[in-house]
Amino acid sequence: EDQVTQSPEALRLQEGESSSLNCSYTVSGLRGLFWYRQDPGKGPEFLFTLYSAGEEKEKERLKATLTKKESFLHITAPKPEDSATYLCAVQSNDYKLSFGAGTTVTVRA
Amino acid sequence: NAGVTQTPKFQVLKTGQSMTLQCAQDMNHNSMYWYRQDPGMGLRLIYYSASEGTTDKGEVPNGYNVSRLNKREFSLRLESAAPSQTSVYFCASGPRGDSPLHFGNGTRLTVT
Fold first, then answer.
1. What's the pLDDT tens digit per position in A73-100?
2. Which residues of B touch A4 (CB under 8 A)?
3. Which of A88, A104, B70, B102 makes the best surface tag, with the fewest CB within 10 Å?
4. A-contacting residues of B 6-45, CB under 8 Å?
5. Which residues have C-beta within 8 Å of that of residue B61, sequence separation ≥ 6?
6. What are the tens digits of pLDDT across the range B19-28?
């Protein structure tokens, strides 16, 4: 059975304090790994797709990386507007999509 | 461009009542999905529709039914609501099965 575990559950950062979120996964053949951002009271919003180990994607202060067993979402010099819940999802070769429970990031000014 | 629109935004039901959650997308996507989100758990797939005219069960289909009314609309029906169905329900769409999903803003359902 495919499994996705995100850590930590919650992360409190000072503005400018860089950190990383972890997404560990087991899947029977990886088709793709997705990162989403979810603001309170809203639906998830797509950030990145990663397809193979060694791949990296960047968007503003966010950088996602992928290995064969995990993905990291690095937040560099975060701002309060980066506060959100970040969700990781893995899709197996049979198109099944499994979501992690998310990491809630709070950035204090 | 509205994207994925869900109605209603909030709903309170008594045990045993029925209701239909509505979802429409204006992106001409083939695939549509219904998820539920509960605290401490990942999004769980209830039902999906890979294309107009087809629907399939997801991970947690019991107590729900769906209708793919046309390419734009995908509704979720609770025939006899139970407190265990208290959750936030999200509709999503994508151009095909391996695409990133576009989500609506959810329906917050409480069953008392």
1. 999 999 999 999 999 999 999 999 999 9
2. 42
3. B70
4. 40-45
5. B46, B47
6. 999 999 999 9
